Amino acid sequence: MLPEALENVIEALGHLPGVGPRTAERYAYYLFKSNSNVAKNIASTLEVLHDKVKLCPVTFALINENEDVSPLYSDNSRDKSTILVVEEPLDIYAIEQTRAYKGTYHVLGGAVSPIDGITPDQLHIKELIDRIDKDDVKEIIVATNPSIEGESTALLLEKMLHEKSDALKITRLARGLPLGVDLSYADQITLSAALENRTNL
To answer: For 103, which of 31, 82, 85, 182 could close a Cys bridge (C-beta 3.0–4.6 Å)?
Structure first.
């Protein structure tokens, strides 16, 4: 029987995605045997997390408490006529690391998933459509994840955006087989995308 305090930490850590019972136990024991300042530092940063971080009211990216909108939107060097649409805020940082995109972003807040009870009205689709006129948007790049839910969301977006404006250019990120992956290990969505986005030799 483990001490109650340690059991409580294991239970709390077990709520994190991807952390099973054994992993939660290892994390909890690591925190116990480490210098107490490690646990205190983690606890203090978690304590202020919800107060120090908020969502941008325009793009729904993560921003600091003292910011009105995302710097990736307010920066005059960013091209507001182009919006790249992602599912979650952290997806933005993956794109930004490439340094290849100079437009703005819009975070949906998930993907349509009837099984999980996520319907289109729960996503930030209306706000995206409202931005088309406000920012004189010329192109929307759909960058949802290559999953069943992501594909369904992309198709829904395409339909709704075309209904809003026929002149609006709607594109998607090219998808295909990553280097080093055998065909036998590729899933159907990846293989379909690879066929659709095939190139000339």
So the answer is: 82
pTM above 0.70, yes or no: yes
How far is it, in rounded angstroms, from Cα 105 to Cα 91? 10
Write out the residue limits of the CATH 1.10.8.420 domain(s) in the chain.
4-54
CB atoms within 10 A of CB 141: 19
Note down pLDDT in tens along the chain; length 201 residues.
Answer: 889 999 999 999 999 999 999 999 999 999 999 999 999 999 999 999 999 999 999 999 999 999 999 999 999 999 999 999 999 999 999 899 988 899 999 999 999 998 888 999 999 999 999 999 999 999 999 999 888 899 899 999 999 999 988 889 999 887 777 777 676 777 777 777 777 777 666
SS3 170: strand
Boundaries of CATH 3.40.1360.10 in the chain? 55-172
* Lookup: tokens for 43: 């606890």
CATH 3.40.1360.10 correct for 55-172? yes
The fourth-level CATH superfamily of domain 4-54 is RecR Domain 1 (1.10.8.420)
Q: How far apart are CA 102 and CA 96, in angstroms?
A: 9
